Amino acid sequence: MSSTRNTVVALALACLFSGCSASNDAESGVDDVIVIKFPHVVAPGTTPKGQAAARFEELVEARFPGRVDVEVYPSAQLMNDDDSLEALAFGEIQMIAVSLSKFDRLTQSFQVFDLPFLFSDIAAVERFQKSPEGRSLLTALDGSGFHGLAFWHNGMKHFGADRPLHLPEDAQGLRFRIMESDVLQAQIEAIGSSPQKMGFEEVYQALQTGAIDAQENTWSNIYSSKFHEVQPYFMVSNHGYVGYFVAVNAQFWSSLPEDVRLGLEEIMAEVTEWGNARSITINEEGRAKMLESGRTEIIELTDEELVVWQDSVQTVWDQFSDEIGSEIIEAAQREAVRR
Ligand code: LMR
Q1: What is the C-alpha to C-alpha distance for residues 69 and 32, in angstroms, rounded to an integer?
Q2: Per-residue pLDDT tens over the stretch 37-55
Q3: Residue 180, SS3?
Q4: CATH ID of 3-337, from 3.30.420.40, 3.40.190.170, 1.25.40.180, 3.40.50.720
Q5: How far, in Å, is the centroid of ligand 1 from the Cα of 83?
Q6: What band does 16 get if pLDDT is binned at 50, 70 and 90?
């Protein structure tokens, strides 16, 4: 476990027993501008999260002019995701939208979103997130200094590599960048590759220098971060989901004047509907632009090939089902198959 991860876990425990201090002084006086620092790691204009964060800023500042100032820092300009978990718990920043895959030291229930081939599309994820079991995950980090507001979609993940990957055997021995997730680590080990946990902001260079051979991500992340310029093959695998836990520092949130808190909740609900509805189009646009660039090949896998991929990662489900909990997995499976 990295030292940052150790710190986040320790901090979450400290928050649990003594509460975390929020640096934003929302309670100190009506004239103070309430600042919401909101860093994230992806591009501002060409990703679902980038657009949703910008829209949140715009709507909040229109509704609370001179009273609430949302400062969005895209593209890891302010900090990376690992550091943002720690900074949020400390109250150094007020809001995050970090990939669900990156919380596994804080809650194991989010690991359901990483189970390979559980959700076939975003509609299935959406149904699960809106089910009672899915909604209960929004409070999974209550008591750890985080207050969950929403789930934002990015999209379905696909494999990219320095060679065509029709079957898992083609990926034998490849160094595969993954997010900080033990489920993803097990998934990559199950296909015979070597998982490398790495921050998003390091991936382009790692591909360019050959430090890694392969990675998995959504079309919008791949296109907006130009991975297609340094990675020749992408496989349409739809094998997993990238989505975000949008959370605020709990003490900051409870210190807000009620009208502001309620207003922010309303805006967050509106932005979530808006951004999630746009996420599929943004990813399709990313895929189309990758093709237009002529710099990479996008390979459609056959149904037979996809079945081999699915079978190869089935053991991951057995490994993590106790940790995640059967109730959560069964609820997700119910929504995944319902049409
Ligand atoms: C990744 O690290 O690949 C993603 O979590 C980046 C993001 O925020 O979509």
Answers
A1: 10
A2: 999 999 999 999 999 999 9
A3: coil
A4: 3.40.190.170
A5: 14
A6: very low
d(CA 247, CA 100): 11
> 277-303, pLDDT tens digit by residue?
999 999 999 999 999 999 999 999 999
Return the H-helix or E-strand segment holding 73.
strand 68-73
Cβ–ligand 1 contact at 231 (below 6 Å) = no
Find the 18 Cα to ligand 1 centroid distance in Å.
31
Please give the distance, rounded to the nearest whole angstrom, from the Cα atom of residue 333 to the centre of ligand 1: 24
| Binding site membership of 43 for ligand 1 (Cβ less than 6 Å) | no
- How far apart are the two ends of the chain, measured CA to CA in Å? 40
Q: Name the residue with the closest Cα to ligand 1, atom 5.
A: 99
Burial 300-309 (b: 16+ CB within 10 A, else e): ebeeebbeeb
Question: Measured from the CA of 199, which atom of ligand 1 is nearest?
Answer: 2
Contact 89, 21 (CB under 8 A): no
How far, in Å, CA of 272 to CA of 246, rounded?
Answer: 10
Q: What are phi and psi of 266, to 5 degrees?
A: -60, -45
Instruction: Name which residue sits closest to atom 2 of ligand 1, judged by CA.
Output: 200
Domain segments of the chain as ranges: 3-337
d(CA 146, CA 251): 8
- Report d(CA 335, CA 339) in Å as an integer: 8
The angle that helices 326-337 and 314-324 make with each other, rounded to 10 degrees, is 130
CA torsion, ordered 94, 97, 103, 106, to nearest 10 deg: 30
